[in-house]
Amino acid sequence: MSSTNPTLDAQGVSKKPLPISIKDGLWILLVAIATFVAWIDYRQYMDIYEVGILIGTGIGLIALGRMWTSIQPLMYWVAGLTLLALWTYSSHNNQITANETAFFLKFLVSSQSAIMWMNALFVLATATYFLALYQGSEYTGKVATTLTWAASVFGLVGMLVRWRESYLINFDYGHIPVSSLYEVFVLFVVITALLYLYYEQKMNTRAMGGFVLLVISAAVAFILWYTFDKGAHVIQPLVPALKSYWMKIHVPANFVGYGTFSIAAMVGVAYLITDKVKRTNPNSAFLTKMPTLEKMDDLMYKSIALGFAFFTIATVLGAMWAAEAWGGYWSWDPKETWALIVWLNYAAWLHIRMSKGWRGTPMAWWAFVGLLITTFAFLGVNMFLSGLHSYGTL
């Protein structure tokens, strides 16, 4: 009898529905308990839609944990460090100033400390991935992957603790930390990293890690500049339009799209470099370390297809939110217009690939250009244009 579970691949990614093991049963139980406790503690502040979001999140986490078992230990670490932070605040009478005196808050698990650890670890992971590619070292690659997991843990901890801190500063300030440009950049790097880690495990290669994490490191550079030059990390009250349950579903769905589009673009860069090396120096050792061009092309397609689905959902949700907040589903606001441009770009990419069979170099270039378009829609609009979304300006 084989000792390998036939329903899992080598990286713990499910290939077909699994029987519920003891490990899965514990995961289901703990997520269900956490969901129930959250409902008991905060139901007086939640409307029916937010209760639905809470239940949906719990169900989604259960499904994700069974499909991708590697996410389970990550969430245990996130929960443990977050609970440490909340307990420390509680032991200091829930005073936000505790993050200046309590050791673990000051240096590890206050929102700002955790996010700074996230930034440092992502930069280290980027360098280590490239070092692993240069050396061809499996051990160095494992270190890079571990650093990326650790950075993702600290990013999630920072976001969850920031959520609690917003209420400690002023109850009226309290909000899920996906409202400001600073907060969504943190969300972006965490989502992109986790999506990459999933594909890394599924494809069983770390060769593209450095390329993908270049985008994350660029976002980290923005976060650091935005923090130290603009003081953007300071928690501010929400503008009225953002005080809605729509924000809790629209923004995360949007950033799954942004994350996958970024992965596709950087895989496209890796594809172009590999293709050029293959044509100019077919005996290069670099080629033995990289995935095949066919695998990279397939990953670009899968990433864009997933991102397009989530971006479409986010666009529809955004229109529904706009109707509630501003009285109309669409107003040709610059942010809305550029969101449509992004959607049309990737719709065309998928259409051309599926109907015309385009592959390879032109699609890799297109994926990279798509990232430039997406970056302008995400950041450039906030810098150079104004409109109903002006609360996101620099």
Automatic annotation (TrEMBL):
<keyword id="KW-1133">Transmembrane helix</keyword>
<feature type="transmembrane region" description="Helical">
    <location>
        <begin position="25"/>
        <end position="42"/>
    </location>
</feature>
<feature type="transmembrane region" description="Helical">
    <location>
        <begin position="299"/>
        <end position="323"/>
    </location>
</feature>
<keyword id="KW-0201">Cytochrome c-type biogenesis</keyword>
<dbReference type="GO" id="GO:0020037">
    <property type="term" value="F:heme binding"/>
</dbReference>
<feature type="domain" description="Cytochrome c assembly protein">
    <location>
        <begin position="179"/>
        <end position="389"/>
    </location>
</feature>
<dbReference type="GO" id="GO:0005886">
    <property type="term" value="C:plasma membrane"/>
</dbReference>
<dbReference type="Pfam" id="PF01578">
    <property type="entry name" value="Cytochrom_C_asm"/>
</dbReference>
<feature type="transmembrane region" description="Helical">
    <location>
        <begin position="48"/>
        <end position="67"/>
    </location>
</feature>
<feature type="transmembrane region" description="Helical">
    <location>
        <begin position="255"/>
        <end position="274"/>
    </location>
</feature>
<keyword id="KW-0472">Membrane</keyword>
<feature type="transmembrane region" description="Helical">
    <location>
        <begin position="114"/>
        <end position="134"/>
    </location>
</feature>
<protein>
    <submittedName>
        <fullName>Cytochrome c biogenesis protein</fullName>
    </submittedName>
</protein>
<feature type="transmembrane region" description="Helical">
    <location>
        <begin position="211"/>
        <end position="228"/>
    </location>
</feature>
<dbReference type="GO" id="GO:0017004">
    <property type="term" value="P:cytochrome complex assembly"/>
</dbReference>
<feature type="transmembrane region" description="Helical">
    <location>
        <begin position="181"/>
        <end position="199"/>
    </location>
</feature>
<feature type="transmembrane region" description="Helical">
    <location>
        <begin position="364"/>
        <end position="385"/>
    </location>
</feature>
<dbReference type="InterPro" id="IPR045062">
    <property type="entry name" value="Cyt_c_biogenesis_CcsA/CcmC"/>
</dbReference>
<keyword id="KW-0812">Transmembrane</keyword>
<feature type="transmembrane region" description="Helical">
    <location>
        <begin position="143"/>
        <end position="161"/>
    </location>
</feature>
<feature type="transmembrane region" description="Helical">
    <location>
        <begin position="335"/>
        <end position="352"/>
    </location>
</feature>
<dbReference type="InterPro" id="IPR002541">
    <property type="entry name" value="Cyt_c_assembly"/>
</dbReference>
<dbReference type="InterPro" id="IPR017562">
    <property type="entry name" value="Cyt_c_biogenesis_CcsA"/>
</dbReference>
